[in-house]
Every structure is written in C-alpha cells, then in structure tokens.
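Protein modeling request. Please complete all fields; requests missing the sequence field cannot be processed.
Requester role: graduate student
Desired output: 3D structure, token encoding
Chains: 1
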Amino acid sequence: MDPRAARSTGYSVLPDGSPDVLGGGRTSNTWRLRVRMADRPGTLAMLAIRLADLGCNILSLSVLPVRGGVLDEIVVRSAGECTRSQVMAAVQRQDCECVGITGADVRELVDTSAAALSSANQAITNPAASADALKEILAADIVTVVPADEANPGRTESGHRAVFGFGDTGSLVARRLWAPFVRQELARAEALLGLLRSAERNVAGSVVLTCEDGAAVVLRAGTPADADAAIALHHRCSAATLFQRYHSGPRMMPRHELRRLLVPPRGISVVAAGGRQIVGLGQVIFEPGSDSAEIALLVEDSWQRNGLGSGLLRRLAVLASASGCGELVATCLPGSEGIRRAALRAGLSPARAVDANGLLRMTL
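Delivered output (364 residues):
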C-alpha cells in the first residue's frame, strides 16, 4: 500500500509498507503472531505480561521446532483496540523477534489434529477441495493448482512459497505473505497429500482390471480363504510358468507355504480373481531397513500376454509406494524378459539388464 494513500484513508503504515489495521479501517482485536525467542526460562512468561499490559489475552500457543531454536505461534485477543504495530513493539521490547503477524479469527482456534483430520475428510469427500484443504492446513493466503512444468519449485520466495506434487501432471503452489513456512508445516502438508493419494488409489480396497481382450478381473488382497483357489491356480499353470516363478517346478504347494504366499509376514499379496477362480497372484515383500521391496508374479498361462501381469505389477507398485518404498526388485532367470515387459507396460522404469545376482531393479 502507498503510504500517502494509507494516510488519506486513516491507515497507519508499518515500516514494510503494510497497513497497521485490517481492511475497511477496522482494527483487529485478534492476532496470530509467530515469535522467535531466546531459549531461556521465563521468556514466554515475560512476553505474556507485556501482552497483558496491552490488554491482550493469549487464546492459543503452539511451538514449531525450527533450525537453531523454536518458533512460538501465539494467538492473542485484545479487550479493546490494539494495532499490529503495538503488538510487534511489545514483542520487540522483550528482546524477541516477531517473524510474522496477521489478523486471526476465533473460529480458527480448534485443535490442530482435529483441524487436519477435518480438512482431510473434506478433501477425500470432495477431491476438488484439495487446494482448500491444503490452504487450511498451512494457514496459507492462497493455494493454486498449476501444471507441473509451470510450478517452478526452486523459487521459494524466502520460504513464503511452497510447491507440492498433485496428481500425475499438476502441482499445488501455496503462498503466504505474513510468515515463512516451516518444516513442521510442510510435513503436515505432505502427510495430507499422501493420504489423498492413498484414498484416490483405493489402497485399502479392491480394484477392477480390464484386460486387453475385455475380460474383467478383481484385484484384491489375498486371504487364507483363497488357499483352495490358489492351489487350483498352481495346478493349471504349466511347468515352464512355475519354473519362471519359483526357479523350480513344484506343482504341489504345501499349505504352510501357500499361506505365506497369500499372507506374507513382511509384505502384501494381491490376487486376480475372475469369477470363482484365481488367475493371477502377486506378492510384494518389504526389506527391513530399506526402501526396496521384492516382487513376484504368477499368472495362469491362458491369461498371459493379456495385460494381467502388468496390471498386477502396477497394483503392487501402488501398494509398495503407499508403504514408503521407492524401488522394486524382481529376481529373473537369465534371458527372461517377461517381467521387464510387464514393468514397462505398467509404467515403471526397469533397469535394462539384470545384475550379477539375476536381480532386475525397477523404480516406482
């Protein structure tokens, strides 16, 4: 705002050129401020006394860890009229730094966790409200959806701008003038968007896969109740298919081994159910202390080269990604290209060659 225009409208202007009061000449009586203070006992208490001298009552307090100390977010309400410059002066007299200050609404004073869950529920119920949910989580001034190639994530504007991936080709750009974003807030935002991605991909439920010939199968988690159908699947598979899967040719699968296939102790199984039959079976096994996971597929011969293998692999990749994995590893026999072709069709990025141990690595 031009200082001359501010004087003509009755605004007082702070050194940074921003008005001292809210729009329409109305002085705010509720402020949200962020204060960097010395880590000394009694500092916060002394600041509370100075704010009390202004007639300000502290409505909420939260501590945001930042590099080299802490940042306190304080919401205060004045019994009378209190300008922003008066609040900032009280902070500075206590030898603290007011990093940011903005007008607040008492309706915003809800538990942080409850507010985050409410925003997440809003976005899951209505995906078009994702930008609004992120705006609430970050207390941002504005959040816009832009194409990913226009987001320019390198431009942070001194921490007042943040970019988040959104969908396959978009980004969410958040901006806030009154205070920079801190790491804890950005972590909350990433957690929200991760939840929305999981909900969009229906990680906990079943999905329908349409094969190239038009046949539809259901991809769902394997259960012990699938044991008989899984045994029948192994009986219908050729020796060559079983050899590619197990690097041996067992037709009889012991039930205790079958249970480990359907309910892996350290992983997830996905079955492809066509009617009452299981026509495909995949597993992802997580490696402790690593962001890698091992995957394996078995597809009935008559369903091969029909898009089922790549569909299973794509679903396993979604589940692995939702669990924090960044790399899939498949054990391949020399000269075998089936898993690599399936990975390419699934949209993954397989290595062009297996390593010395016969492992093909694919990034998610």
